[in-house]
Specification:
The structure holds two protein chains of two kinds. Chain A has nine helices and seven strands; from the N terminus they run ααββααβαββααααββ. Chain A has helices at about 5-15, 25-35, 60-75, 80-85, 100-110, 145-160, 170-195, 200-215, 220-230, and strands spanning about 40-50, 55-60, 90, 115-125, 125-135, 240, 250. A five-stranded antiparallel sheet of chain A has the order 2-1-5-4-3, with helices on both faces. In chain A, strands 6-7 form a two-stranded antiparallel ribbon. In chain A, strand 4 and strand 5 form a beta hairpin. The relative contact order of chain A is 0.12. By secondary structure, chain B is of the alpha+beta class. Helices cover about 55% and strands about 15% of the residues of chain B. Chain B has a five-stranded antiparallel sheet with strand order 2-1-5-4-3, with helices on both faces. In chain B, a hairpin with a 2-residue loop joins strand 4 and strand 5. In chain B, helix 10 packs across helix 12. Classes of the chains: A alpha+beta, B alpha+beta. Chains A and B meet through strand 2, helix 3, helix 7 and helix 9 of A and helix 5, strand 4, helix 7 and helix 10 of B.
Chain lengths: ~260, ~250
């Protein structure tokens, strides 16, 4: 395990009381670091919407996002059991016989995963969601990796639940709603691109994400510009706003250290 | 497992509407908020593009004054909620003022006896329909349960505002037998992505804004007595395309 990355990750996960905190960036950082630190192929986070529903908040890959969605749609799978019980749930050989969640197991194998570990995100009595680790090979995760994974989930949960009343006024409950709305914008933009260029939804997402990366825009901003645009042209408008002081495009700096 | 809160609240909205012998509307949503969520009053404003927002309903004079105050001053929780697409929960107006920064709204609201204001953006992704505001005469936060229920009420208000703006869908529902409910699935989280993707696809098929596309999607489902989620799935699977020109009989 990369111990320098591990210590950086704990620092980043605890560092939520800052002015430019973005919950989506934060959760994507959690999934990306989980993959790199814990010998996982993919990772995802589901959070409880206060409406009483589980929602996908972040996923390190399209395949893991589909599997998270499958669990929510079919109301079965290790992630749901973990959320309901507040306990870690292991599914270590999804291609074997006698599966506890047969439809889920088939879908996971289809998506290329044979092992899933769901770790609760909880603080005292409150369960806010789950961190899910996916692996292409069969066999459980190493106990040491799971202890670190649970620690990452715990620190992230504490970070999210801190009462945030420093410079930004939003609480996590408020921010989560903005984050969930961002995800809706992205789905609307995927639909618009898919129809315009006759693409599958995951191809549309790749196009959208690549454009956001190339132009250093937040994915949400790229998606909103596209959906708001009266035409279906893509890219929707030139990247970056022009800074009034320098006349140069203003790019958003990535908050978390890139690999 | 308790009853699905979305189904429960839509039932209350439908019941209120039928008791007052009219179709479901934002007025019923505001009434249910006051009856169920421990607040003193509620209002809904509709975003109207270039011109100022329009007050669609208010449960009492104080609620109406709060809505007007924001429109007059150009500041306040509702405007912040619309700008950030996130709820703004000012549980203690006086104590929250320094960090919220509404130098004119806060004193104005306190003068008419308001202790707390909770503003919910009426948005579906990039679609912006308006704002739902709630106030209480005493300070104090919403409970977690109340907050979740207010989000569901805001979802309902969003749909009713869009339908009202988009034509005749509202005429069809009388809030009877959960008809309106079928057009906004109680287990929305399961169908969320496909409904949103279908909305995006329809902006291109029909050459309309996302708001209009969403209304047309619901109108199609309603006119054919089909579930919204099923219609959305067919559109995403490219088994169904909607025609840009509605048929002469008024069906989309």
């Amino acid at each position: 395990m990369d111990s320098e990355l591990l210590s950086d990750t704990f620092v980043d996960l605890a560092d939520t009381m800052v002015a430019d905190f973005d919950i989506i960036d934060f959760l994507h950082m959690l999934t990306d670091r989980s993959v790199r630190l814990l010998a996982a192929s993919a990772a995802g986070v589901v959070l409880a919407d206060p409406r009483g529903e589980l929602r996908i908040a972040a996923a390190s890959s399209e395949a893991s996002e589909l599997i998270e969605l499958f669990q929510i749609q079919n109301d079965q799978g290790p992630c749901l059991d973990c959320f309901r019980t507040g306990q870690p749930v292991t599914a270590a050989d999804l291609s074997g016989p006698g599966q506890q969640w047969p439809e889920f197991a088939a879908a996971a194998v289809q998506a290329g995963f044979r092992t899933v570990e769901a770790l609760p995100m909880r603080l005292r009595g409150q369960i806010i969601g789950a961190l899910n680790l996916f692996r292409a090979s069969s066999g459980p995760f190493e106990p040491a990796d799971l202890r670190v994974g649970q620690a990452l989930a715990d620190v992230a949960t504490i970070g999210l639940l801190q009462e945030r009343n420093l410079r930004r006024s939003e609480t996590i409950a408020e921010q989560l709603q903005a984050a969930l709305n961002s995800r809706i914008i992205i789905e609307q933009a995927k639909g618009k691109l898919a129809e315009r260029f006759n693409l599958a939804m995951d191809q549309a997402f790749t196009l959208l994400r690549d454009h956001a990366r190339e132009s250093n825009q937040r994915l949400t901003d790229t998606a909103r510009n596209l959906v708001d645009s009266a035409t279906a042209d893509f890219p929707p408008r030139p990247a970056g706003e022009v800074s009034p002081s320098t006349g140069q495009p203003q790019y958003r700096q990535p908050r978390y250290r890139q690999p | 497992m308790t009853e699905n809160p979305r189904a429960l609240l839509w039932g209350l909205i439908a019941e209120h509407a039928s008791r007052h012998d009219r179709g479901v509307s934002v007025a019923s949503v505001c009434a249910v908020a006051v009856a169920s969520e421990g607040v003193s009053g509620a209002w809904v404003t509709a975003a109207s593009g270039q011109t100022p927002d329009v007050i669609m309903c208010a449960t009492d004079p104080v609620a109406e004054q709060l809505a007007e105050l924001q429109l007059t001053l150009g500041e306040g929780p509702g405007l912040d909620a619309q700008a950030s697409a996130a709820p703004v929960l000012a549980a203690d107006l006086e104590a929250d003022e320094p960090r919220r920064g509404w130098p004119a709204f806060t004193p104005g609201a306190r003068r008419i006896g308001v202790g707390a204001v909770f503003a919910f953006p009426l948005t579906i992704g990039a679609i912006r329909a308006g704002e739902m505001g709630l106030y209480r005469d005493s300070p104090g936060p919403l409970t977690a349960k109340q907050f979740g229920e207010c989000l569901i009420l805001a979802d309902a208000a969003t749909v009713f505002l869009l339908d009202g703006a988009g034509g005749d869908v509202t005429r069809g529902y009388n809030g009877v037998n959960g008809k309106a409910l079928d057009l906004w699935p109680p287990d929305l989280a399961r169908h969320r992505a496909q409904i949103d993707q279908a909305t995006g696809m329809l902006t291109v098929q029909l050459g309309v804004t996302a708001g209009e596309a969403f209304v047309r999607l619901r109108a199609y489902a309603y006119a054919r007595d089909r579930r919204l989620a099923d219609v959305a799935r067919d559109i995403v699977a490219r088994r169904l395309r909607l025609d840009p020109d509605p048929a002469p009989d008024g069906e989309p």
